[in-house]
Amino acid sequence: MRRITRIATVGVASAALALTATACGNTSSSDAASDSKEKSVAIAYDIGGRGDQSFNDAAYAGLAKAEKDLKVKGNDAEPSDGESDADKVQRLTELARAGNNPVIGVGFAYAPAIKKVAPKFPKTTFGIIDDSSVTGKNIANMVFNEEQGSYLAGVAAAKATKSKTVGFIGGVETPLIKKFEAGYAQGVKDTDPSVKVLSQYLTQPPNFDGFSKPDLGKAAAQGQLDKKADVIYAAAGLAGSGSIEAVSAAGKWNIGVDSDQYMQAGLAEYKDSILTSVTKDIADAVFNLIKSVEDGEPQNGEIRYGLDKDGVGLTDSNPAYVKLTEVTAAVDKAKQEIVDGKITVKTAP
Predict the structure, then answer these.
(1) Which phi and psi angles does 197 have, rounded to 5°?
(2) What are phi and psi of 2, to 5 degrees?
(3) Which of 10, 52, 161, 210 has the fewest CB within 10 Å, making it most exposed?
(4) Are 332 and 165 in contact (CB under 8 A)?
(5) Dihedral angle, C-alpha 132, 136, 142, 145, nearest 10 °
(6) What is the pLDDT along the chain (349 residues), one digit of tens a residue?
(7) How far apart are the first and last CA of the chain?
(8) How far apart are CA 179 and CA 175, in angstroms?
């Protein structure tokens, strides 16, 4: 797999991206142009990049599966620190020009760039995760009912807490992350109204450091621990790893996000503290889009993943979670009631 390294931002008026390949023995992006007849696909990561043990790594898993099962060549491109929409436009343009199809933007931040780039490459399918605002004949919007999975996390937290205080940490206060907060808080209150929910966001737009700096997550978690929270759910990308570290050190429960964080190698030191994780099947979404292009019937428009299709869910990888039968029974009951339409989960606090 060709890995495109982080790109130094040289201003909105920069003429071209300096793309450097670092994997599979490839040494320059010029190879991509010469190999344009070979079937290749690409994903462009969100803030935090590959190795965040969460959102971006889930997308990478889908790309890796496509390489293995579909025998396509995978390329993945990293974001630069503090980049602008113009940088994203250049990145997507370069990936499309190199012959990648589809080209997938990981995260809602790619919406403005895809809106500009997709019309220029009508034969290329562009995918975007977590956004449905930008549309087009060659755009696939892969979106999830995060609030539903987060509701189940709230049920689990309310059942698992001993202090009657639980926490939520959001990376950046955006409408997307507020869906996580809304579902979690509703799940807690529907299960046990006496449980207090502490909520905190690490940064406010346009500052997106709350998705990339673990020290911010660690400090926020410590603050909630000091207020007696004993179950903390962090939806904060790479910054969430800092929260997991602090909660683990305190001997309390974490609830992971996006990926099954109990199974993430980079978090192995803290795995016993990760009670469960709210997952979004980003890997399958990425794989399914790539496969649709390979099959000659590319997906387009909104493709929604919810509890009814196991597009979101709650993991049971931690044996300690499985042993908490009262917790698992309550979660299973809530899941069925959401699927049956008996519970409608809010998308805003």
Answers:
(1) -110, 115
(2) -80, 125
(3) 10
(4) no
(5) 30
(6) 655 543 332 232 233 323 333 333 232 233 333 344 679 999 999 888 998 888 899 999 999 999 999 999 999 999 988 889 999 999 999 999 999 999 999 999 999 999 999 999 999 999 999 999 999 999 999 999 999 999 999 999 999 999 999 999 999 999 999 999 999 999 999 999 999 999 999 999 999 999 999 999 999 999 999 999 999 999 999 999 999 999 999 999 999 999 999 999 999 999 999 999 999 999 999 999 999 999 999 999 999 999 999 999 999 999 999 999 999 999 999 999 999 999 999 999 9
(7) 41
(8) 7
Report residue 59 as tokens: 């997308």
Pair 65, 98: CB distance under 8 Å = no
Both tokens assigned to 101 = 């199809």
The helix (H) or strand (E) run that includes residue 64 is helix 55-70
Strands 301-305, 139-144: parallel, antiparallel or unpaired by DSSP? parallel
The amino acid present at 31, given as its one-letter code, is D
256: CB partners within 8 A, 6+ apart: 54, 240, 244, 262, 267, 274, 276, 277, 278, 315
Considering the entire predicted model, what is its pTM? 0.85
